[in-house]
Amino acid sequence: MTILLSDPRVAAVPLRETGEPLVELPEAFGPARAAVRAGLATRLLRAQSLLPRGLHLRVVEGHRSPQRQRAIIETYTAQVRAAHPGATEHDLPDLVARFVAPLVVAPHVAGAAVDLSLVDEAGVALDLGTPVDATPEESRGACFFDSPWISPQARANRRLMAAALNGVGLVNYPTEWWHWSYGDRYWALTTGAPSALYGPAGAA
Fold first, then answer.
1. Helix, strand or coil for residue 59?
2. Cβ–Cβ under 8 Å, residues 20 and 204
3. pLDDT tens digits, residue range 134-176?
4. DSSP states of 28-52 as a string?
5. pTM of the entire predicted model
6. String of DSSP letters for 165-201
7. How far apart are CA 61 and CA 111, in angstroms?
8. Residue 168: C-alpha distances to residues 17, 41, 58, 89, 100 (Å)
9. Which of 3, 53, 80, 166 has the most CB atoms lying inside 10 A of its own CB?
10. Is the pLDDT of residue 203 over 90?
11. How many CB atoms lie within 10 A of CB 179?
12. What does the mean pLDDT of the chain come to?
């Protein structure tokens, strides 16, 4: 059963902030030069070394301000209301959390998450089934990591990426194949860690 970021168990995870700084990822991870916690940056470098020669992680987003997180929540909530007119106020948080985390537990706001994909030596994106940030509605569920509605090649590419990222301790949010995190409350809950390492982070 998929645990969503709206699950009360995520917010209940204790936080023991390490104080690690946000650092800018090197250009090798793409032009976004995303900021992430230092411990996550180190793990991404190790994950890159685990990929087959000629393949590269392309990070499109890392740390996100609380203001940007709120804006995404508001925009997507409106989309969900329109797409699911029968949804109750009880259902709405879980529907929204498939694509964007509640502010209080948001891994991006903690600098603990990246949105990424795989590219080849020329910077051409591999087939991963959907674009990064395709919503469940837009992709008809193909954005879920284990979606049955993607090609065998996309599935193989997702598993290849996952092997490298899991291998250095990152966890995937199963409704978004591109979202991987380390040190946040969701990571702690799903790995059995006693506490989260990273809470909301300041600007880089």
1. strand
2. no
3. 999 999 999 999 999 999 999 999 999 999 999 999 999 999 9
4. GG-TT--EEEHHHHHHHHHHHHHSP
5. 0.96
6. HHTTT-EEETTEEEEEESSSHHHHHHHT-SSBS----
7. 10
8. 20, 11, 17, 38, 24
9. 80
10. no
11. 26
12. 97
Instruction: Say if CB 154 and CB 128 are below 8 A apart.
Output: yes
Nearest to 129 by CA among 162, 96, 100, 94: 162
CA distance 204 to 201: 9
CA dist 161 and 52 (Å) reads 10
The tokens describing 134, both together, are 């395709």
> Residue 204: its pLDDT value, please?
42
Q: What is the pLDDT of residue 81?
A: 97
Neighbours of 193 (CB within 10 A): 16
Tokens standing for residue 120: 């080849």
Sign of CA dihedral 158, 197, 190, 73: negative
Q: Which helix (H) or strand (E) holds 23?
A: strand 22-24
Residue 171, φ and ψ in degrees, nearest 5:
-120, 150
CA separation for the pair 50, 47 (Å, rounded): 5
Q: DSSP string covering 88-149, please?
A: -TTTHHHHHHTTS--GGG-TTTTT-EEEEEEE-TTSPBP--SS-TT--HHHHTTTTSTT-SS
* pLDDT 10s digits, 110-128: 999 999 999 999 999 999 9
